[in-house]
Amino acid sequence: MFVNRQFRPLTDAALISLAVAVCYYAAGRLGLLGRLVVEGVVATPIWPPTGVAVAALLLFGARVWPGIALGSFLVITSLTTPGPTTAVTVVSNTVAPLCAFLLLRRADFRLDMARLRDGLSLIFLGGFGAMLISATAGVGLQVVKGSLDRSEFWAVWLAWWAGDTMGVLLVAPLLLVLAGPSGRFRVRRWKEAAFLGLTTLVLVPLAVLSPMGLLFLVCPLLVWAALRFQLAGSMLCALFASVFATVVATSDHGSFSHLSDVEIMVKLQTFNGSAALTALLLASVITEQRATRRSVRHACEELAEVLEHLAVGEPSPAPPTGPPPEPSESRQAPPGGLRDPCPSASTTDPLNGGCGAHGRVVGPGGGGP
């Protein structure tokens, strides 16, 4: 029994790593369907395996890195014969998601992405920052081998880096949302979701296939999806728009017709980046505002309950007991003088040493003015 308990964590880690490797390889094969050729080098506008790797590390921890390395090796061997440079590519494809994971954990990243800082962390740390490693190592290796000229370095490097970054920004948030607790939708929300899906299926092809450049029509869909369905709706819409635009761009149709390879890559990555950033940031802001509103409402309800309990348990006011209050300062005699025995002129008696008509103090002999 002790031996089984000792080896069970290793078995679980091995099974999870194997599942991650399978998902990585499947995502890689799907990403290769939309590849472009930039300066004679094959580049993918969206590289889904990076998103799969980052999401797996965030969900299961650093123990699944062998699955990422195995999946990367399988993708490379499906394209070319393994060689000495394959190890460098596999290491760079594994280290980049690991750095993204460590940076996000350092930034206190939350898996539900219910804060704006979570969206910003994923963009700048997990996407823009960590993917510099894989792009620099991969393209630098091509230059060292001599298969790529130094003058072509930056064009290929930008395409490689943008593809890895788009994989993180478009795939990782969607996987994190699907792995989290599912929200409860009412019937009217399902109807609205179906209507949004049908509108997306009609409007996105119309915008992408039109030769007039109507890609901006996708933005209202992203705003609608983010406002009503937060991260799940906005990222699904953005992913569908980006994948459809990538397929159209690789076939040289619609908004991407009559353009060079570099122009297609620049236009496509600009569209994909705009869609991903709009969906991710807007959904994060709306989710954070809704969470803040729920917290304020909950705090107000708790405060109302506390006040109600205090009002019910408050004792009724009792008549005052104890010695009578001392006379005020105006009723006390001044130091070294006599106190006026007549508080009012209407009750004064000018005889017997009392107060005069005007309330003047007189001596015991009753002398005149």
UniProtKB/TrEMBL annotation:
<keyword id="KW-1133">Transmembrane helix</keyword>
<dbReference type="Pfam" id="PF05231">
    <property type="entry name" value="MASE1"/>
</dbReference>
<keyword id="KW-0812">Transmembrane</keyword>
<feature type="transmembrane region" description="Helical">
    <location>
        <begin position="119"/>
        <end position="141"/>
    </location>
</feature>
<feature type="transmembrane region" description="Helical">
    <location>
        <begin position="88"/>
        <end position="107"/>
    </location>
</feature>
<feature type="transmembrane region" description="Helical">
    <location>
        <begin position="52"/>
        <end position="76"/>
    </location>
</feature>
<feature type="region of interest" description="Disordered">
    <location>
        <begin position="311"/>
        <end position="369"/>
    </location>
</feature>
<feature type="transmembrane region" description="Helical">
    <location>
        <begin position="198"/>
        <end position="224"/>
    </location>
</feature>
<feature type="transmembrane region" description="Helical">
    <location>
        <begin position="231"/>
        <end position="250"/>
    </location>
</feature>
<feature type="transmembrane region" description="Helical">
    <location>
        <begin position="12"/>
        <end position="32"/>
    </location>
</feature>
<feature type="compositionally biased region" description="Pro residues">
    <location>
        <begin position="316"/>
        <end position="327"/>
    </location>
</feature>
<dbReference type="InterPro" id="IPR007895">
    <property type="entry name" value="MASE1"/>
</dbReference>
<feature type="compositionally biased region" description="Gly residues">
    <location>
        <begin position="353"/>
        <end position="369"/>
    </location>
</feature>
<feature type="transmembrane region" description="Helical">
    <location>
        <begin position="153"/>
        <end position="178"/>
    </location>
</feature>
<keyword id="KW-1003">Cell membrane</keyword>
<feature type="domain" description="MASE1">
    <location>
        <begin position="17"/>
        <end position="290"/>
    </location>
</feature>
<keyword id="KW-0472">Membrane</keyword>
<protein>
    <submittedName>
        <fullName>MASE1 domain-containing protein</fullName>
    </submittedName>
</protein>
<feature type="transmembrane region" description="Helical">
    <location>
        <begin position="270"/>
        <end position="287"/>
    </location>
</feature>
